[in-house]
Write a structure and sequence with these properties.
It contains twelve helices and seven strands. The chain has helices spanning 24-32, 37-47, 55-62, 71-79, 87-96, 113-119, 153-166, 183-191, 203-208, 222-230, 234-243, 275-280; strands at residues 7-13, 101-112, 129-136, 143-148, 173-177, 195-198, 211-212. Helix 1 crosses helix 4 (71-79), helix 4 (71-79) packs parallel to helix 6 and helix 7 crosses helix 8 (183-191). The longest helix has 14 residues, at 153-166.
């Protein structure tokens, strides 16, 4: 009997605050001595002028404070990024795969491509990194125009392109993200029966993602993948971690009810009414 072909999964991860602890724009601003970066981003967000996640690209191209940004500035900013622990172990695991399971890992982010490539150099191949691409002035070296920004529906288009390139079906796409800029792509992946993982306590994302993992270790995203897709038991997952010299010191499986209670028009005199009577009113 011929062995069944391995199930091929596309695993896509955001970068800023998903694989890193930082915002690329904040790091670049500090490098260039630019103040009030967060206020600039919030201002753009309030006007809905650009897709969520594309604020840095817009500022680099249009904000006078960012005039003069060159490729080397982006590369230097990437070298300053503080990454989550054990990204190399995560990439190694996904490259090796499992019996019956093959994984193709890509980083897709609205952060500048040069920033991501510098931060993940030697860990993730450059052709598996898709970020914001700029055209540069051939004489000054400054950013001249924006070629592509994988933000909002632009990120959805990139994911669809990767599925087509790899020949994987949409229900075998796994997306990992951290914030509001990941909402469009997570809804898209969910709508086509894929699997979504949040790595933050962002309330909007928590309502959409099928699993949430809170950890400072990138390897932790394998827990819902191994548990819910591969079908492993907790003991098998712990053994997998130990094979990479990692120990699941704390694994708290919790469901949090977020509740807001407000007063209603029901008067104090009605409090003696039984639930069946109140429901019938």
């Amino acid at each position: 009997m011929t062995a069944l072909a391995a199930k091929h999964f596309l695993v896509v991860s955001d970068f800023d605050q998903t694989l890193s602890f930082n915002d690329s724009g904040q790091i670049l601003s500090e490098l260039l001595g630019i103040d009030h970066f967060r206020e600039k981003v919030d201002g753009l967000a309030s006007t809905n002028l650009v897709q969520q996640g594309a604020e840095l690209a817009y500022l680099i191209r249009h904000d006078p404070a960012f005039r003069g940004v060159r490729r080397q500035h982006l590369t230097e900013a990437g070298g300053r990024v503080r990454l989550r622990n054990d990204i190399p172990a995560l990439v190694d695991f996904l490259q090796r795969g499992l019996d019956g399971f093959q994984f193709s890992f890509f980083v897709v982010s609205a952060a500048p491509q040069e920033v991501i490539q510098a931060a993940l150099a030697g860990t993730v191949a450059s052709d598996h990194i898709i970020g914001t691409e700029f055209d540069y002035d051939p004489h000054s070296g400054e950013v001249q125009s924006i070629r592509r920004v994988p933000a909002g529906y632009g990120k959805v288009a990139v994911v669809e392109g990767l599925e087509e390139r790899l020949g994987t079906s949409p229900d075998r796409t796994i997306y990992i993200g951290d914030g509001s800029s990941d909402v469009h792509v997570m809804l898209h992946v969910n709508n086509r029966d894929g699997f979504t993982i949040a790595v933050s306590e962002n309330r909007l994302l928590a309502r959409i993602a099928q699993s949430t993992v809170i950890s400072d270790n990138a390897f932790s995203v394998l827990i819902p993948i191994l548990e819910r897709i591969v079908g492993w038991r907790p003991a098998e997952i712990r053994e997998c971690f130990e094979s990479y010299a990692l120990r699941l010191h704390e694994w708290e499986k919790a469901r949090t009810d977020r509740v807001t209670i407000v007063a209603t028009s029901l008067s104090l005199s009605d409090r003696s009414i039984g639930p069946d009577v109140v429901a019938a009113q």
